[in-house]
Each structure stands twice: as C-alpha cells, then as structure tokens.
Specification:
Length: 122
C-alpha cells in the first residue's frame, strides 16, 4: 500500500472546524463516516468528534471513505489516514492517506474537495 501526502490550504473565510449542521449534511451523503475508526480524545470512532473537528480532518475521512467505496466488494483493504495542522492560523494542514491505486486516491481527493467546497459554501 502506498501513502499519498496532500498539503491543503483553507480559504481565509472558511471555517476551521466542522459544526453539527455541517456534520449532518455530510452524514446524509456519507452514512458510513461516523463509524470510521478514529484516534481522538473523545472516543474510538469519527462520530465522537464529527460535530467539531478540523475541516482537514473531515477531508481525510472523506478521502478514506471514497476509496473504500471504490474498492471491489471482495476487497479486504483497509485505508487509513492522519491529519495535522502545519499552520492552523493560516488554515494549512497536511493530510496523509494510504492507497492501493494512486488514480483512485487522487480521484477521491478531488471528489472529497468538491463535495466539501459545496457543503461549506451553503
């Protein structure tokens, strides 16, 4: 499995954190996201922090979920990721995700960013 590293920059006007309203919109389209395993201080799944987590962390989980959706039904691949701020004040973060197919991973990033841009602009 490979690792894809992406440096992201949030728009200056973009929120740094998710909100319960944003999380609800995300859950409507990505119902498996709350069940993702997630290392955090509030619990052992992404649901524990989904209502108030950095936007790049949400992007990481969207990319992982899109890759899992694209995998063959009989696949036992497990996709993982990690996100960290590189400059929180400036809205810059580094996201690393595992992948089995680089083109699927790049498409997942593109689609996740498109989705996130659409729901954050609402």
């Amino acid at each position: 499995m490979g690792r894809l590293v992406c440096d992201v920059a949030l728009a200056p006007s973009a929120p740094r954190l998710t909100s319960p309203a944003l999380a609800a919109r995300v859950r409507a389209t990505f119902p498996n996201l709350p069940r993702h395993a997630c290392v955090n201080d509030a619990g052992d799944t992404f649901a524990a922090v989904m209502d108030c987590t950095p936007l790049p962390h949400l992007l990481e989980h969207l990319v992982v979920d899109l890759q899992a959706q694209a995998a063959p039904p009989d696949s036992d691949d497990v996709y993982v990721g990690v996100t960290e701020w590189t400059d929180e004040e400036a809205g810059r973060a580094r996201i690393e995700v595992s992948f089995t197919d680089d083109l699927v991973a790049l498409r997942a990033f593109r689609d996740a960013v498109d989705f996130l841009n659409a729901v954050v602009v609402l």
